[in-house]
Amino acid sequence: MTAVRFERVGIAFGSRSILSGVSLDIADGEFVGVLGPNGAGKTTLMRAILGLVRPTEGAIAVLGGPARRGNPGVGYLPQMHRSAPGAGFSGWDLVASSAGGGRWGWPGTSAAERRDIERALDLTDARDLARRPVGELSGGQRQRLLLAQALVGRPRLLLLDEPLISLDPSRQRSTVELVRRLRHEQPVTVLFSAHEINPLLGAIDRVLYLGNGAAALGTVDEVITSPVLSRLYAADIDVVRLGGRIFVMAGGHDIERAEHRHDA
Ligand SMILES: Nc1ncnc2c1ncn2[C@@H]1O[C@H](COP(=O)(O)OP(=O)(O)OP(=O)(O)O)[C@@H](O)[C@H]1O
Ligand SMILES: [Mg+2]
To answer: Residue 183 has what DSSP assignment?
Structure first.
């Protein structure tokens, strides 16, 4: 079955077009890396799959039905934002807040929901963090709890928006590995956005690269090429492979790195 299908999708905010004429199929169980420069539409694409942004043209199907808000089959890790929940809000509260299909999961969390939350905390190695106030945690620790939150309810489709932001390289690797391993334990389709392809190499099945209103979906070898990326960046792009890593260069600069500035 198809987990996500875009049929000639256009998305615009007012007169500003973000995506135009995008058609793509993501199969059940695929692990797809979502890349593209700042503002390319990675977050918007995920929010459209969640039914939070309506396409201005075309149609989006998710897990066999039209994209709609509150679909319990979809787990979401939003892109990091600075605001921390108030005092007294523990890591457990954060993870539990998505139990039971989106309602605040306490104090009436059922035994089955508690077991599911514990399973998500174990998967993300976050049991110790669950006992601490969220306001005290580092950005990376909070990110791990948010990943646990996205896993509550055993979603069939996981949308992870920049889960590697503010993680050190070893945590980046363990997060990608965790997602890869998760797919062996439960059938799940994953869209995982990142600002650099390298941490995802060897783990993803395909890459969805956005830029210039368009999208390219294919294997790393098909998409991370000079002609495809030159079209998406609207610039002359060189793709340099070195020591098992890939560098996307424009005018001698690594633009996947240089273009990405997040304040998180
Ligand atoms: N609700 C909104 N109203 C108006 N414009 C929006 C809205 N949401 C996003 N945009 C615009 O849509 C474009 C795509 O934004 P989006 O957040 O999807 O990019 P992104 O690829 O996730 O970027 P980043 O790498 O910085 O996270 C940007 O130009 C952004 O300003
Ligand atoms: Mg984004």
So the answer is: H
CB under 6 Å to ligand 1: residues? 13, 18, 36, 38-44, 79
Beta-carbon contacts of 57 under 8 Å, excluding residues fewer than 6 positions away, are 8, 9, 10
Is the pTM higher than 0.85? The answer reads yes
Ligand nearest to the CA of 211: 1
Q: How many Å lie between the centroid of ligand 1 and the Cα of residue 115?
A: 36
Q: Which helix (H) or strand (E) holds 12?
A: strand 2-13
Q: What is the pLDDT of residues 173-205, one digit of tens each?
A: 989 998 998 888 888 999 999 999 999 999 999
Q: How far is the CA of 254 from the centre of ligand 1 (A)?
A: 22
The per-residue pLDDT for range 46-86, each reduced to its tens digit, is 999 999 999 999 999 999 999 999 999 999 998 876 555 66
| Atom 3, ligand 1: residue with shortest CA distance | 13
Joined together, the tokens standing for residue 42 give 């990675």
Which domains does the chain carry?
Answer: 2-73+155-258 (3.40.50.300), 86-151 (no CATH)
Residue nearest to atom 1 of ligand 1 (CA): 13
